[in-house]
Design brief:
- By secondary structure, the protein is of the alpha/beta class.
- About 35% of the residues lie in helices and about 25% in strands.
- The chain has five helices and seven strands; from the N terminus they run H-E-H-E-E-H-E-H-E-E-H-E.
- The longest helix has 13 residues.
- About 5% of the residues have low confidence.
Length: about 160
């Protein structure tokens, strides 16, 4: 199965904020939306990075006195992103998230961000496959692509 099939089911929505958004506001957004990460985009829509719950916790834990959560999220974002494409194979993504110890993969169509896949999405797929007795009917039908590192440059 390819990533595009997952996005057809879960949707193509991606929550994003600008680099100058405060860490505190991003934490509130993650909590309100019940999501684990948010994309950071420049004002012109250019992808700048990603911030996860783990990034926020790490920032607070490493700072004396808990850190200043009024700092811009660009201070803690990951700018070198592991991303996938719409035709990336799910098996390849499972290997990538395990190898890189990440939980969220931005999905690209060329240079355009078109969605987000999480480890939870991949796990749900695997559970559904097990309930069906094995492989999905899509296996082997599509071109296989993997992941790549996208260096955004960040701020």
């Amino acid at each position: 199965m390819e990533v595009s099939e997952i996005l057809k089911i879960k949707g193509f929505d991606v929550i994003s904020v600008e680099p100058n958004t405060s860490i505190k506001d991003v934490a509130k957004l993650l909590n309100e939306r019940r999501i684990g990460s948010v994309i950071i985009k420049q004002a012109n829509g250019q992808l700048a990075g990603l911030v996860s719950e783990r990034d926020i916790v790490r920032f607070i834990a490493e700072q004396e006195g808990g850190g200043n959560v009024d700092n811009p999220v660009s201070k803690i974002m990951t700018a070198d992103l592991i991303v996938c494409d719409l035709d990336s194979a799910v098996d390849t993504l499972i290997i990538a998230i395990t190898k890189h110890r990440i939980r969220h993969l931005p999905v690209m169509d060329g240079d355009q961000l078109v969605g987000m896949v999480s480890v939870g999405d991949l796990l749900k797929l695997r559970i559904a496959e097990l309930k069906q007795g094995g492989r999905t009917r899509f296996e082997g039908l599509f071109q296989r692509k993997g992941t790549r590192t996208l260096r955004t440059g960040g701020d």
